[in-house]
Design goal:
Oligomer: single chain
Membrane topology: Multi-pass membrane protein
Protein name: MFS transporter
CATH topology of the largest domain: Growth Hormone, Chain: A
Strand content: under 5%
Low-confidence stretches: 178-197
Number of strands: 0
InterPro entries: MFS_trans_sf (IPR036259)
Subcellular location: Cell membrane
CATH architecture of the largest domain: Up-down Bundle
Distance between the termini: 55 Å
Order of helices and strands: HHHHHHHHHHHHHH
GO cellular component, one term: plasma membrane
Length: 379
């Protein structure tokens, strides 16, 4: 029964991820085709992140909605988006905010059933496996979106997304219920963030700003404006970045002791390589070299974040971990979304190269921390 429930929930979650990717692909292609402005794409990215934050926050309170009904509501708003996009691309703002808020709520609530059927000592393993499966699903989603876009264009993608919403509605309305809910005590998650001077928190902040370079709208600007490639290559670049993140799971499983004892050296070395490679990436016009570099950036960022997560989790007990992840997700989304607005304006006025050079300079700020910590270890 438990295995069946896992698979049933995973099917719904997989289709939900496909919906997000298909919608983003369709909206970006329509808006850019009409407006030719990276700032407009940055505004849409900002609205998506803020909407998800709103939904995430509502889901973390006692406010409860039926997930199956939310998926049916998503299908309705996608149809509204379909009509508005056919009239004017910027009319998409309102349905995008609503859909993103629904996504944020669903994403938070859809993880709760996993906790209800998972033993406490298995939470870390199940969480890692979910992350692994989600990344595979995202790669498949981006590749599918490319294929479908070529066949049925943006508006056809929206219709398919609407149908997926109805299927998700059926899945969640008929999913088996599990009554053995795990009760988690609310912990204080402010401890790791009490001071901005906290080393690890500051490193997280640097990584958040650096991640602006890899949000979908910035990769879109790189592919369209700098590499002079079509929207199909945008999907390929997104899936390649996620593939780099996926590789971390295999590397850590095989060499976890190596990273455990040399975490600072690994972070320092990866940061140096990232700074050097991003300078090459900003001016390179070879599509295949860019693919290799973005694969490395996905791998590097995911590995550094996993090391930082491990350090932060050591500072708290297991009861606070769930709340901590939600708080960190909200903080990350807020910082990145504000930076994306600035980056979109800069991409229109100074070119996408300026964004990558600035993020490379921001990464330099973390080097003194690594050097200081390595000296302390050596002393």
């Amino acid at each position: 029964m438990k295995t069946f429930l896992y698979r049933y929930l995973w099917l719904g979650k997989m289709l939900s991820i496909f919906m997000e990717i298909f919608y983003l692909f369709a909206v970006f292609s329509c808006v850019y085709k009409e407006r030719h402005s990276f700032f407009d794409l940055a505004i849409i990215t900002f609205l998506i992140m803020m909407g998800r934050n709103l939904g995430n926050t509502l889901a973390s309170t006692s406010f409860r909605l039926n997930i199956a009904l939310l998926f049916s509501a998503k299908s309705v708003f996608i149809l509204i988006a379909y009509y508005l996009l056919s009239e004017h691309s910027l009319y998409i703002v309102l349905p995008t905010i609503v859909l993103s808020a629904i996504d944020g709520y669903i994403k938070y609530q859809s993880n709760r059933p996993y906790l209800s059927i998972t033993k406490r000592e298995e939470i870390a393993t199940v969480g890692g496996f979910q992350s692994f499966i989600d990344q595979i699903t995202m790669i498949i989603g981006w590749l599918l979106s490319i294929t479908l876009f070529v066949q049925v264009n943006s508006f056809g993608l929206l219709i398919i997304t609407c149908l997926l919403g109805l299927i998700c509605c059926l899945i969640y309305s008929s999913s088996p219920k599990n009554k053995n809910r795990m009760v988690q005590k609310a912990g204080d998650v402010r401890q790791p963030f009490q001071s901005f001077k906290n080393r690890i928190s500051f490193l997280f902040m640097i990584d958040m700003i650096f991640n602006v370079a890899w949000v979908s709208s910035m990769i879109f600007a790189l592919v369209e404006n700098h590499l002079k490639q079509g929207i199909v290559w945008w999907g390929i670049f997104n899936s390649t970045y996620i593939l780099g993140m996926l590789m971390v799971h295999f590397i850590i499983n095989k060499y976890h002791m190596f990273f455990a004892y040399r975490r600072l050296k690994v972070q320092f070395f990866l940061t140096i390589l990232t700074i050097l490679f991003i300078a090459v990436f900003a001016f390179n016009v070879n599509i295949y070299l860019s693919l290799f570099l973005i694969l490395f950036f996905g791998f590097s960022q995911q590995l550094k974040e996993k090391i930082l997560y491990t350090e932060l989790i050591k500072q708290m007990d297991i009861q606070t971990i769930s709340n901590f992840h939600q708080r960190l997700s909200i903080q990350s989304s807020f910082v990145i979304s504000v930076c994306v607005l600035c980056a979109g304006w800069m991409a229109d006025h100074f070119g996408i190269q300026a964004i990558y050079l600035i993020t490379g300079l921001v990464s330099c700020l973390s080097l003194p921390f690594y050097i200081s910590e390595m000296r302390k270890q050596a002393a």
